[in-house]
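Example record used in the benchmark description.
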Amino acid sequence: MYLAFVATALTGLAVVNAAGPIVPGTTGKLGNAAIVEGNPVGVTYTATLPNRSTTNIRGFVAGTSNANGTGVNFVVNLSGFPDASLGPFLYHIHDQPVPANGNCTATLAHQDPYIRGEIPPCDPTQPETCQVGDLAGKHGNITTNPFQAAYLDLYLSTVQGPASFFGNRSIVVHTSNTTRLTCANFTLTSGNSTGANGTSPTGNGTVTGSNPAPSPFTGGAAATVASAGAIVVGLAAFLL
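Model output (structure tokens):
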């Protein structure tokens, strides 16, 4: 009976750490994400998914500076998803680019300069409290095939330098259990995010509020799993 109880506890912890309920007002260690202002007009970064034998998912995610310089307008056009039982599918901007070998795992965690973490899940009614790169969390998961969406994200930058800049990062598509299905790097497809000869473009991509440097990936997910395991081991020892 004790072993059964421990197994039940382990299952419960796995569920909680995998997602858990939305907790309104959850924010990063460095505060809420700041609204980005001064993005240069006409700058677009696009991530086009590659043709891979391991998946039929194709399409692109493109982000263009908003006309007034505040935030980025995204257009998402994706298709070829596997069985719907693996969804709803998720997509995020990840901290690192995809290496030459195409390994999506090497993109590490989500773009998260405010060190918010993935748990609890993003509350879309309070996007400033979400991870900056959590596009699905802020704007909706992929629930149709094909999937198309267009929206304004106020917390991303098209100017090189700020931690909110996404043009040197990647997009990753996941199943609902976060298995990585495909990925692609953002590349500059329109405009100039650095200005001619390295000078500043019109607009400076400044943020309203703090602008922390990007935080390195520290294996937070692994730490969470280890903590859960420690709790269960302690529980088992107590009961036995």
